[in-house]
Amino acid sequence: MATSHKEEPAFTLTSQHAPHGTFPVLGIWGANASGESSLLSALLFLRTVVQQSHARWAPTDLVPWWPWRLCRDSSLASEYELDFELDGVRYAFGFAVRSGTFEREWLCRWEGTRRQVLYFRSDEGSAPWYFGPSLKGQRTKLAEKVRKNNSLFLSVAAQENPSGPSAAGRTRPLGRAPRGREPRDTDPARPSC
Q: pTM for the complete prediction?
């Protein structure tokens, strides 16, 4: 870990496993009861869902769901979205859960300022799946393995390709998009990414 105390080398911890000899550090701080613990809980939940929804959950298991306590309408979905950069490319992965089931899931990336939807699924509408043209390979086959109520496409893809890259943005080829399946900008179910 590196600090701003350059005159005191004791404040620097170097490692051969860290780029440039330093470890990236994230600090979360705020006033009492301002949501720091909730943020960490949400990140842990997101990681657990991606790692375990397909591999460890039984087909009848419900997705853990905690509606926001301050919302008058407790039937609204809880959305989780992670915006991150991997190998210099920006990605957004997210899902929405309500009443113990997944309602939506998406993965997008940006090439420069242009957003590309890699995939999007929704329980609403007549076309539950959209695969962007840049997602190649056996995506329909993988989508058939997704349990509608409690597993994520990303989890299925990771289980089916355990030797490949494990990060969400490191997609292996999954196939071509069928014509007429692109989400429209006016589609209310379109992801926010």
A: 0.68
The Cα 193–Cα 110 span in angstroms is 9
Collapse the DSSP code of 118 into the 3-class scheme (helix H, G, I; strand E, B; otherwise coil) and give the result.
strand
- Residue 18: left if φ>0, alpha if ψ -120 to 50, beta else—which one? beta
Other CB atoms within 10 Å distance of the CB of residue 92: 21
Q: Is 5 exposed, middle or buried (0-12, 13-18, 19+ CB in 10 A)?
A: exposed
Burial of 31 (0-12, 13-18, 19+ CB in 10 A): exposed
How far, in Å, CA of 47 to CA of 189, rounded?
23
Instruction: Please tell me whether residue 185 adopts helix, strand or coil conformation.
Output: coil
Convert the pLDDT of each residue in 13-64 to its tens digit.
Answer: 566 666 665 556 677 888 888 888 888 888 898 888 888 888 888 888 888 8
Q: Half-sphere exposure (CA, 13 Å, Cβ side) for 90?
A: 9
Task: Count Cβ atoms below 10 Å from residue 78 Cβ, excluding itself.
Answer: 18
Q: Is 162 helix (H, G, I), strand (E, B) or coil?
A: coil
Asked if residues 169 and 153 have their Cβ atoms less than 8 Å apart, the reply is no
Give the residue carrying structure tokens 């992965």. Answer: 93
